[in-house]
Design brief:
The complex is a heterodimer of chains A (182) and B (409). Chain A is an alpha/beta fold and 182 residues long. Chain A has a single domain, classed as Beta Polymerase, domain 2, CATH 3.30.460.80. Chain A has four helices and seven strands; from the N terminus they run H-E-E-H-E-E-E-E-H-E-H. In chain A, the strands form two sheets. Chain A has a five-stranded mixed sheet. In chain A, strands 6-7 form a two-stranded parallel ribbon. Chain A starts with a helix and ends in a 6-residue tail after the last helix. With 409 residues, chain B is of the alpha+beta class. Classes of the chains: A alpha/beta (182), B alpha+beta (409). At the A-B interface, strand 3, strand 4 and helix 3 of A face helix 1, helix 2, strand 6, strand 7 and strand 8 of B.
């Protein structure tokens, strides 16, 4: 854990943080709103005392309540992995700016997150499905997408075997997600 | 229809989803629907004298089921569009519906020639979630077995690489190495390919006599044997002249394309997770990070050969420094970590492999994201092939060493 790094981040991004900076093991986590992604990532990438030039991972997460986009960054200025969580994307229409202007290689990771969660990355010029067929309608990694063997909860019927319906739009998500918020 | 498929009925103007009134002809190069994105529109518009060519999904040199649509001008490749998903199994979703121990075996077939690495990163992430300390002997066994696996994977790369260029002999030579190592690991783990050997808190079993005697026997002649195999290609003028200057990428572009592993180090960036963000017992081991400046196919090939030598060094040190003790930490059978998040990255033979695991307090991971280097590297193929011939497409793809199991997840 790099305590000084936490202080540096708090001093630099105080206004944009939507939650406390958490540290555990060798990871530092900061939460920002989806609107601040471009500014925060550009600062992290460009500023010489931060130098986060390496994007380790980009992942979508569905907490059952909101959507998140989670970035993991590496820099030689700290011994920690930096996790930037763009939090609070609406589940009905999740939108977040693309980071392909900094890392062209994030393009496929964003395509994957779009394919699996339906998150729209604004500014990605090739945002189409990557694994699933182009006429596929569902978003498989969402929490209201049930596997076929999860028959008790599956609405079933009228869909292709691979295609599963999502939960009815008026169903409370808290009933579908196992426990707690993530 | 009583239920609705898909989410909102009203479509946004920039919604790139398509609806079809007929089945997709999956092997038609030009998709039977209007372009969904700017890039797709640009790619599927033919210029003067250009044509499309499908390569795959059953093409032998795509290393699995990958389809690449090539846009050709004569024999020159103008642009290409890889089409993925033929091997997609939804591993992440399966892991979310399995408990922590079961999730690890789903990760084995991701990179089926280097399974010990794909199971290592989730194991570290789960251990972080549970605050488990792994016994030192188990860590040494992990390093020892995985470095053996790295050599086996690089040996296979050497064979494939030459095979894609039309050389038949090297693959027969490299399989001598690979078979010996795989047999060794079978003695240790019980499996030849999908080992499922690492456990949360340690490894499945201690080193046994058969493994040690096979390893000792192999180590005494490994260097010589590997040198002999390399000699077939390193000094082969046809091979070297074909590879030099092909598929060149510079370090800045490689970082922008988020490349890792040997492909990044071949451009001169000494980034290796084992040193950049050390895990396991790598801080205690001495080894170099080989780099090359050229960033072409030859550099990527030679760099992997250098890495084999470093792996042999690591194995040698592991055997000398191996401590005594248990190989498993004491853990309850049913694992229920507290809610939290953990991220773990390791250096696989193809680059950085990482796992982001989220726990919600139950016995199943709430979210498990697997990041695979093959997936990342495959998207750079189009960038590396500017105006090269069709035959070079295979050479460039082989030099990036993608495994379709990892690409398609």
């Amino acid at each position: 854990m790099d305590r000084r790094f936490k202080e540096r981040l708090e001093a630099r991004f105080g206004a944009q943080l939507t939650g406390p900076i958490r540290q555990r093991h060798d990871e530092t986590e900061m939460r920002i709103g989806p609107g601040d992604v471009v500014q925060v990532m550009t600062t992290l990438h460009d500023e010489p005392e931060l130098r986060f030039e390496f994007l380790s991972d980009l992942a979508g997460v569905d907490t059952g309540v909101v959507m998140q986009v989670v970035y993991h960054l590496w820099s030689d200025t700290t011994t920690d992995w930096l996790r930037v969580v763009a939090d609070g994307l609406s589940r009905d229409d999740p939108r977040v700016p693309s980071v392909t202007f900094l890392w062209k290689g994030a393009e496929w990771m964003e395509r994957e997150a779009y394919d699996m969660f339906g998150i729209t990355f604004e500014g990605n010029r090739d945002l189409r499905r990557i694994y699933m067929p182009p006429d596929y309608q569902s978003f498989p990694l969402r929490k209201d997408f049930f596997l076929p063997d999860d028959a008790a909860r599956s609405p079933g019927g009228g869909v292709r075997p691979m295609e599963r319906t999502h939960a009815p739009s008026n169903a409370p998500m808290t009933a579908l997600v196992r426990r707690g918020s993530v | 229809m009583t239920t609705t498929t898909g989410r909102p009925a009203e479509r946004q103007s920039d919604d790139p989803r398509v609806t079809l009134d007929r089945d997709l002809g999956i092997f038609e190069p030009v998709p039977p629907y209007p372009p969904r994105t700017e890039r797709e529109a640009e790619f599927y518009t033919l210029g003067d004298g250009q044509m499309f060519l499908n390569m795959g999904p059953q093409h032998p040199s795509t290393h699995g089921v990958l389809r690449v649509v090539l846009k050709l001008d004569g024999e020159k490749v103008v642009d290409l569009d890889p089409v993925l998903g033929y091997l997609h199994r939804g591993v992440e979703k399966l892991c979310e519906n399995a408990d922590y121990h079961q999730a690890i075996c789903y990760t084995d077939p991701l990179e089926y020639v280097s399974s010990l690495f794909t199971e290592w990163s989730p194991v570290i992430a789960f251990e972080k979630l549970m605050d488990v300390t792994v016994p030192r002997r188990a860590e040494y066994i992990r390093v020892l077995s995985s470095e053996l696996n790295r050599i086996a994977s690089h040996a296979l790369f050497l064979g494939w690489m030459a095979l894609d260029l039309g050389g038949l002999t090297p693959i027969l030579w490299s399989f001598i190495e690979r078979d010996e190592i795989v047999d060794m690991l079978a003695a240790l783990t019980g499996q030849r390919m999908l080992f499922n050997y690492f456990r949360i808190g340690g490894v499945n079993g201690d080193l046994n006599h058969e493994f040690m005697s096979r390893l000792g026997d192999w180590m005494s002649r490994a260097t010589e044997q590997i040198e002999a195999g390399n000699g077939l290609l390193n000094e082969n003028e046809i091979f070297v002249r074909r590879m030099r200057g092909l598929g060149t990428i510079d370090s800045k572009t490689a970082l922008r394309m988020v490349m890792t592993g040997p492909n990044l180090r071949a451009t001169g960036v000494p980034f290796d997770v084992r040193r950049a963000h050390p895990y396991s017992v790598f801080p205690e081991l001495e080894f170099d990070i080989p780099t090359r400046q050229e960033g072409d196919c030859l550099a990527r090939y030679l760099l992997r050969m250098d890495e084999i030598k470093q792996s042999l060094r690591i194995i040698d040190q592991c055997l000398h420094q191996m401590p005594d003790g248990p190989v498993m930490a004491k853990l309850p059978r049913l694992l229920r970590p507290r809610p939290g998040r953990a991220y773990a990255a390791i250096e696989g033979p193809r680059g950085q492999l990482s796992t982001y695991a989220v726990s919600d307090g139950t016995d199943q991971p709430f979210r498990m994201r697997i990041h695979d280097p093959s997936f990342i590297h495959l998207q750079s193929v189009g960038l590396l092939m500017t105006g090269d011939l069709i035959a070079d497409c295979m050479a460039i793809m082989a030099s990036l060493d993608p495994i379709m199991g990892g690409v398609d997840k």
